[in-house]
Amino acid sequence: MKNEYIPYPAVIESLITESFDTKTFKVKFADKKIAENFNYVQGQFMQVSLMGVGEAPISITSSPSRKGFLEFSIRAAGKLTKKIHELKVGDTMFIRGPYGKGHFPFEEIKGKNLIFVAGGIGLPPLRSLINLVMDNRKDFGNVKILYGCKTADEFCFKDELKAWNKTPNTEVLLTVDKATDDWKCRVGVVTELWKDTDIKEDNAVAFLCGPPIMIKFVVQKLEGSGFTDDNIIMTLERHMKCGLGKCGHCNVGDKFICIDGPVFTYNEVKKLPKKDGAM
Amino acid sequence: MTKKVINKSDISKLLKDANNEYNVYVPMEHIGGDVLFSLLSKENNTLEDDIKRINLSSEKTVNSPKEIFYPQLDTMMEYNDKGEIKETVENSKKLVFGVRPCDFHAIAHQDHFFSKDYEDKYYLSRRDDSLIVVIGCNQPPLPNECFCTSVGTGPFLTEKFDIQLVDLGDYYLVEIGNEKGADFVNKHEKYFSAPFRDEIKHAESTKLEAEENVTLKVNFNKALQIMKTEEIPQDNLERIAERCIECGACVYVCPTCTCFDVFDDMKDGQGVRCRIWDTCVFSGYTKEASGHNPGAKKEYRAARRYEHKLKYDTLESGISGCIGCGRCLHSCPVDIGMSNFIKEITTNQKYH
């Protein structure tokens, strides 16, 4: 019987400091056989750990179309993630997974217009799908990426944001809550970006990740723009200890975010008990 | 079904013999009088003392046998600072002797939970080579709190057991439920003899009387139906939340609660990753590193526990997460408990 709780070492190949509190780690399994047999799909996550420190669920931010490595964008928020930030190229972290039966659709959304809405550290989970779309760009219609942060120094993937914006039929719109004098884009919450671009239900699917309050207002905006509940797709985050539907921490109603999600349609989220704070 | 009898005076001899082949877990009296499932000593000098402390009377173990297969604190792996990891899985041959029928149902619930979706190697390895001997309850061990007859989990089992004992005074009627049970009895045949017709009759009347002795009745099926279709009334949840002191006792004694936390501990280059029971009634249970806590409200945490056991478990597997053992009410310092909750939602009367 496989012991799903045992993690495997993965070596940090490169790392990028994205912002004052977030770094992106590119890692490879130390064991070549494991690396060769490893597959994942957009929207899944891994349990990432440091021995002697702890373990936490981290979404895979790299695209499955780019093979041979995994990327995690990690914000230094707690004991483990702060320790991970101290790691250097060549150091080892421990990973197991991938987890999450509920992932982002891909084949099903070919030919559609795509809207991505992210708040703060919510962009890394969406980036897996965004780059998968970019690597198959001709299969999709218009792509709009709406991204809001508290301040301008919080933005991740700055080079990629520029590159995505230069791609034909692709628009990147940014906003900050608090602007400095040199800020040229919008100021305000992410729904303010509705003023800068035309968001229509027209053959479109929306993908969301961000804090619960953002999700709530973005869903209202999207519904106002005519989106159905099945065409609003979000990835939820919860405190998790196992990723296997056992530890109980991410249980909401009859669902476990770890195995039934982390990606759900708004239609599914709506059916979860409100008191458990699904959103 | 094959039936035998065994003299009560032979039980300790049987357990001593079995102790050579199995790790034997049996209810034992501890300081202060608490009866707990404990491992029989393998050392001759302490074994006799353990044997004297065995208590198979109608006393209920404070903890359920859950912790034999799913210990409160369990080491999952050992590692060192070179990154070498060694899994620590326990898989000894076990005899769990004296399990109550309701707790046997809880083990079936756990077997299902730890096998579905992903197999939990720690639980399943411990459980794999185990033989369970059930003792039916002539008297409800917790007279004011047991409600097995309402749930359908006792006071005797009718199927799926390895071995079930019926207490007939100086001896037990031994019901052999499967091949595993038969193998055990055959191996220790010198302690078992064929029953007389009177003894079988006596056992049947004992079982009927035992049903009558469980006096706490609740409308369990009605509760399951209500939970399936309706929201728990807000004032009911608020009254529970007002009283609950968040001690977690109900969760620790519950034979079907499975939630755990995982932590690492490392010293001088050697470390362990362990899991430890956790409880959904604690406010920090859902707290994230960012400080966001989606499950913070106390009344919703109370609701979560009842919904999980009565609604979602039943919908998912058909096996209720409550087995009517009464431990939650018995252990609660402020008299919150499953039977009171069920009475409230089925009768509109206040019990909390």
Helix content of chain B: 25-40%
Regions of chain A with pLDDT < 50 over 5+ consecutive residues? none
- Topology as H/E string of chain B? EHEEHHEEEHHEHEEHEHHHHEEHHH
Distance between the termini of chain A: 37 Å
User: Strand count, sense and closure of the main sheet of chain A?
Assistant: 7 strands, mixed
Judging from the principal axes of the Cα atoms, what is the shape of chain B?
globular
Q: Which regions of chain B contain 5 or more consecutive residues with pLDDT less than 50? A: none
Overall spatial form of chain A:
globular
What amount of the residues of chain A lies in strands?
25-35%
Question: Largest sheet of chain B at a glance?
Answer: 8 strands, mixed
Q: What is the β-strand count of chain B? A: 12
Oligomerization state: heterodimer
The ordered H/E elements of chain A are EEHEEEHEEHEHEEEHEEEHEH
The computed structural class of chain B is: alpha+beta
Number of helices of chain A: 7
The Cα radius of gyration of chain A reads 18 Å
Mean pLDDT of chain A: 94
Largest protein interface? A-B, 45 and 53 residues
User: How many β-strand runs of chain A?
Assistant: 15
Give the strand line-up of the largest sheet of chain B. 3-2-6-7-8-9-1-10
